[in-house]
UniProtKB/TrEMBL annotation, chains A, B:
InterPro entries: aa-tRNA-synt_IIb, aa-tRNA-synth_II, aa-tRNA-synth_II/BPL/LPL, Anticodon-bd, Anticodon-bd_dom_sf, Pro-tRNA-ligase_IIa, Pro-tRNA_synthetase, ProRS_anticodon_short. It catalyses: tRNA(Pro) + L-proline + ATP = L-prolyl-tRNA(Pro) + AMP + diphosphate. This is Proline--tRNA ligase. It is an enzyme of class 6 (ligase). Keywords: Aminoacyl-tRNA synthetase, ATP-binding, Ligase, Nucleotide-binding, Protein biosynthesis. GO terms for biological process: prolyl-tRNA aminoacylation. Its EC number is 6.1.1.15. Residues 38-319 form the Aminoacyl-transfer RNA synthetases class-II family profile domain. GO terms for molecular function: ATP binding; proline-tRNA ligase activity. It comes from Candidatus Adlerbacteria bacterium RIFOXYC1_FULL_48_26. GO terms for cellular component: cytosol. CDD domains: ProRS_anticodon_short.
């Protein structure tokens, strides 16, 4: 993409009302726009990174047998009344609205109820199980106070997967697979070393659930980490003696850290299937409630945590897996027409080789271009200038390390497609 | 994808409360699920077709210089008050909701206001123009009565593109490009012959706008068609003598038809830019309001119209461009293990050749499998059975024409990748 087609401008200063580092950087770099407190728009660069995060998650969900669908945001109160989650006394996250005839509707803050109700039409026999259905879908949550930039918002896309199993044994097997898949997601987006599988309380149907917590000073949570075992406990269970028995963790060996919850997996058991009448006939012909689990990741929060943790004082630093482009081709101003021609040729060849390139073809000073490039955080900057033209090699600078090499077109393509 | 992983079941009968043919077929085939009146979920097959429609539109929008972004659904009343479109007296489509502190928010039914407001931060000089920004984003419209299945719903994804130009001349050039791009979209999804560019009234800033209307008995609109010129008029302008002068159409030559609006393009002029303060400095240093246009397509409505028009008494018939899969590999029941092995091998080879295949690997009767296959509407059915095994060639049946051939694996792959 030519940068001259990108309508967004970078900003030296973040808006004064934006206190979180992730939103400051993402706004300054033109990735997002703040619509109002807790509500953000994705601008072209931000949407590209966001979509890459979705694709990483999608690939990992498909690998464990997930099937993608998409449910509505508008919610029917009747369905939620069956699980006692319609009233504002029981659930404080609802945004509610009304039809013209006065009938109330909700905006989904999660989707256990409608999906369980839907599955009553699809699941009737043990032969229909298990089912692993997931979506990337906009949730609405009426947060009292929205803060922390993209980390806690009132409208956000969530990857929510729901598992429907014959029994607890089948469920547990998938729960572990899902846990491993989450580990791979965080690894692939650059948070592998800082993200800990964390024991949390389990609610009514299992002793523990699990959160995935990324250590981050801007986080709202506190966890207690065993670095060697790469496990943690959250505050809910930290003082519960049983958790140490169950996990073998030793309280004295844990270190405390601020963290952000980037994912969670829950055993739901039969709470929703019983309330909504989702049962199946087993091999003996008996009617049995389906055993469920739910598994969430907020892709925008993940993007925010990466922005928060992997950035430096010059701007964003994306891992290749979720960078909006792989190469930032920076053409420096010159009176020599050959510089532009060379940049165009390089853009063409890289693009043809399947490499995503943002080409800074604007008329602007070199200093401005480099500052924007640093702020954008694209993994590899390739500079085309009179100097590189004379040398026959382009200057290639890795954004993360600053490591600089000089490569010909063929060396560069060889390097990027290796 | 193996059909045994697809949790949806086909239905012989549509739900009784569903009167529209498109929704009846799509529900029976397991493409969509009705959540409530005017609100549908996309099940895996439906989501695949829907995503293909999005991609066709995305490609055509990118070709004319569109840049993709994504705005929020939650809307700030302050922005809409500036154009007098917040009050329910002026706009009857709003769904409104409230923050915990009692402040009202809206759910966007369109996005002229927030995008124009956003652009005031990005556009300041003639050098920043033109800008063509588009999104695929969920709109919410509080329709009095939702009917016609997916054709008119209360929650739906819209492709909305907004153009920001220096002046009317620059705008008009893009308006025509956009019109051509729309023509290509409808052509690619199989509605080229039945869709007519239709003159409609233009509102305050231009004499005419244009709708794209597809002739369809289930449509809510009436248009008047000149088949030779492939143009039409809608009801608003049919009795306006000026439209005949402007277009050269002759009233007596027009035929009346029921139709569905599948797209529209509007000249907005400076109505929104003036109200929201979006201006730029021209080359003479003068401040000038940006000249705008808007361009909408509802991808789910498009999918519904294709379902309505291209189906037959056996079920859906998708064009290749938007079919959920290209090949439906139907393995017939057999005691001979070689049949399953052959199906698995064919699935592997087709998938490796980049062809999307749904493999009916279920234990079910041949009749049931064929009926499901017809209902699904995947363009090519390839049958693997004892008979085809003996013949060394697979039976290949085109869904649309019923045309049948017999091909070896290599002939089939050659045919599909030609």
């Amino acid at each position: 993409m030519k940068q001259s087609h990108l309508f967004t401008k970078t900003r030296r200063e973040a808006p004064k009302d934006e206190v979180s580092k992730n939103a400051q950087l993402l706004i300054r770099a033109g990735y997002i726009h703040k619509e109002m407190a807790g509500v953000y728009d994705f601008l072209p660069l931000g949407l590209r990174t966001f979509e890459k995060v979705l694709n990483v998650i999608r690939e990992e969900m498909n690998k464990i047998g997930g099937v993608e669908l998409h449910l509505s945001a508008l919610q029917n109160p009747e369905t939620w009344a069956k699980t006692d989650r319609w009233s504002d006394e029981n659930v404080d996250a609802w945004f509610k609205t009304k039809l013209k005839n006065g009938a109330e509707l909700g905006l989904g803050f999660t989707h256990e109820e409608p999906l369980t109700a839907l599955m009553t039409e699809q699941i009737s026999s043990y032969k229909d199980l298990p089912v692993y259905a997931y979506q990337f879908q906009s949730k609405f949550r009426n947060e009292e106070r929205a803060k922390s930039g993209l980390m806690r918002t009132r409208e956000f896309v969530m990857k929510d997967l729901y598992s429907f199993s014959k029994d607890e044994a089948e469920h547990t097997k998938f729960y572990e697979q899902s846990s491993d898949a989450y580990g791979r997601v965080f690894e692939r987006v650059g948070l592998g070393d800082t993200t800990f599988k964390t024991f949390a309380s389990g609610g009514s149907f299992s002793k523990y659930s699990h959160e995935f917590q990324t250590v981050c000073d801007a986080g709202e949570d506190t966890i207690y980490i065993d670095d060697e075992r790469k496990l943690a406990l959250n505050k809910e269970v930290y003082d519960d003696p049983q958790v140490y028995e169950a996990t073998g963790l030793v309280k004295e060996n844990l270190r405390e850290a601020k963290s952000v919850e980037v994912g969670n997996i829950f055993t739901l058991g039969t709470r929703f299937s019983e309330a909504l009448g989702l049962s199946y006939k087993n091999e003996a012909g008996e009617s049995v409630p389906v055993f469920m689990g739910s598994y969430g990741i907020g892709p925008a929060r993940l993007m925010a945590v990466v922005a928060e943790l992997l950035s430096d004082d010059k701007g964003l630093v994306w891992p290749e897996s979720i960078a909006p482009f792989r190469v930032h081709l920076v053409e420096l101003p010159s009176d020599n027409e050959e510089v532009s021609k060379e940049a165009a040729e390089l853009y063409r060849e890289l693009t043809e080789a399947g490499i995503e390139v943002l080409w800074d073809d604007r008329e602007a000073r070199a200093g401005e271009k480099f500052a924007d490039s640093d702020l954008f955080g694209i993994p590899l900057r390739v500079v085309v200038s009179e100097k590189t033209l004379a040398a026959g090699k382009f200057e290639c600078v890795e954004r993360a390390s600053g490591h600089t090499t000089h490569k010909s077109i063929s060396e560069l393509i060889g390097h990027l497609t290796a």
